Amino acid sequence: MQRVPFRKSIGTKILIALIAVSTIAVFLTGLILVIFSGRTLRDNISQRNLQIARRAANEINTYIKTAVAELKTTGEILGAFSDVWLQDLLLESFAYSLDKFGTVALAGPDGSVRASSRLDRSEEVRFSSAVLLSLKESDIYLSEVKISSDNLPYITVALPIGAADRPSGFIKAELNLRDIWNLVDDISFGPGSEAVLTTEEDVLIAHPDKTKVLSRAGDYAFGDSRSCLESRGGVFHHRTPDGRMLLIACSPVETAAWKVIIQQPLRDAYLPGKIIFHRSLILIAVMIVIAVAFSFYLTRHFFAPLNELLEGTLRIGRGDLDHRIAVRSQDEIGRLSRSFNAMVEELQDYHTRLRSLASQLTLTEARERKRIAADLHDRIAQALALTNMKLGALASSMRSTAGRSALDDALALIEQTIQDTRSLMYDLSSPLLYEVGLPAALEQLVETFQAEHGLKIGFRDDGSPKSVTTEVAVLVYQAVRELLMNVVKHADARHVTVTTERQDGRLRVTVHDDGVGFPQEAKAFKVGKSGGFGLFSIRERLGYVGGRMEIQSSPVSGTRIVLTAALGEDPRKGGSQGGPPGQRKDVKQ
């Protein structure tokens, strides 16, 4: 049996499936999260910029409304006094206490100035016809932004006193916009961000670069930004003439028809999103690696018992019937392992019984061979020898030449029959095996093969005592005879060497030839169809008596087969299990 190739194993297929599913799931989930989180983040950044613009617009609107309310209250209070000198004094005190206001003037119904925070009646103090005309059409007048002598922006605010349709007078003041400048300058939320305040005609009111105040907005005159005055503002992208993409947030100042515009380079605005995107990709990659590692772990964890079961079957298939598969769980694999172990135990028991039966058959065959050889010797051989002697005596007394010739032929035939009978007796059972010992029997076997087959066979023995049981002696003798027969039939060898020696307390018999060798495959150990002893039978029977067979074979160096067996009494129980009591004895050198 061979291992299942890695790419063909079910564990590999499931591992690939787990890796594919987990990787695709993690990648798609991460990609969806990145896409939606990126959109959400961009929307949040856009809404943040819009909220900043709206908050700034509300603060500017509140600033103007508060100034208008203060100015209206002051006008109503001053309208209750008729003393011009007192009105001048109160206006001067009002302008001094509230630094947001510059020059404050009070006029009558016809627009003529009655009181002022300034002593002179310059053009700045007087009410122009345009102001009066505007106040007849609305409740408030806001002029264009101007720059004072102190290089600060201001607007003129004018209000009617009393009822709007029949005012008792008018009040106007110069409203300082320095606080609005500071408010716009404080808007900062990242590199490249910029906030400006423009009029409806896109004239800059507030800008980080003060030299651009009261100039045309230029880069800020976006067509979409005009919708700020018609709605609550919005966010949009804008491409500048030089190709830069900007994120624009715009919010109107309702009281003054102004608009707060916040711009930020799109690359800088969405930089957190890019950072999150890149980190998300790294996180997805890490999660994929973790998923792959976890898939490997799961596959190894769940398939370890299966691989152990497969390895156990391979070992048992190679003949290691003592191996047992560890049962590590109560699941189907655990149940299969227990069933397999039970099957192997039955197989081992059956195998042991087969070995015992084979051993008994070997001893029975040896006893029968010995009995038949003894019968041939005691009956046929002796009868033939006696017949030969009597015919010889008869031939000596016969004077007829023809009769003597016939008797001589008969004597020659009887002599040949006696020799054939002796050869048959030897083939059936070597007397030396029981009377002298295994080495002597093997040496005689080598001489017989060399004479019969013309093969050069050498025999060497180390001369050490080798006491073995009858069972081992018969088994080793038959094994060597079968190996020599294999050499004659298949090896195409020119020289064979048989060696017997004692090594590490064990008998060691080596048969080495210089033939063509043979492949060491499982089929070489099968019993032949002709009923030959076979390598399989040699290995199994040697294993039963505690021995073993080792094979080394190649086309270059030939075949070397080593048989080892225990010396002395049977190593299993001190006696043979291959025959009935009384049939076993030790054979000694």
Quick overview of this protein structure:
This protein has 589 residues and is an alpha+beta fold. Helix content is 51%, strand content 19%. Among the domains are: 81-179, 2-Layer Sandwich (Beta-Lactamase), CATH 3.30.450; 431-589, Histidine kinase-like ATPase, C-terminal domain (Heat Shock Protein 90).
Structural features, described:
The chain has 589 residues and is of the alpha+beta class. Among the domains are: 81-179, Beta-Lactamase (2-Layer Sandwich); 431-589, 2-Layer Sandwich (Heat Shock Protein 90), CATH 3.30.565. The protein is built from 12 helices and 18 strands. It has helices at 10-79, 84-97, 129-137, 178-185, 266-269, 271-317, 332-397, 401-428, 431-435, 438-453, 470-491, 534-544, and strands at 101-107, 113-116, 141-142, 146-147, 153-162, 167-176, 194-198, 204-206, 234-239, 245-253, 258-265, 456-461, 468-469, 495-503, 506-513, 548-554, 558-566, 586-587. The strands form 4 sheets. Strands 1, 2, 3, 4, 5 and 6 form a 6-stranded antiparallel sheet that branches. Strands 8-7-11-10-9 form a 5-stranded antiparallel sheet. Strands 12-14-15-17-16 form a 5-stranded mixed sheet, with helices on one face. Helix 7 crosses helix 11 (470-491). The longest helix has 70 residues, at 10-79. The two termini are 43 Å apart. The model is unreliable at 527-532 and 570-589 (pLDDT under 50).
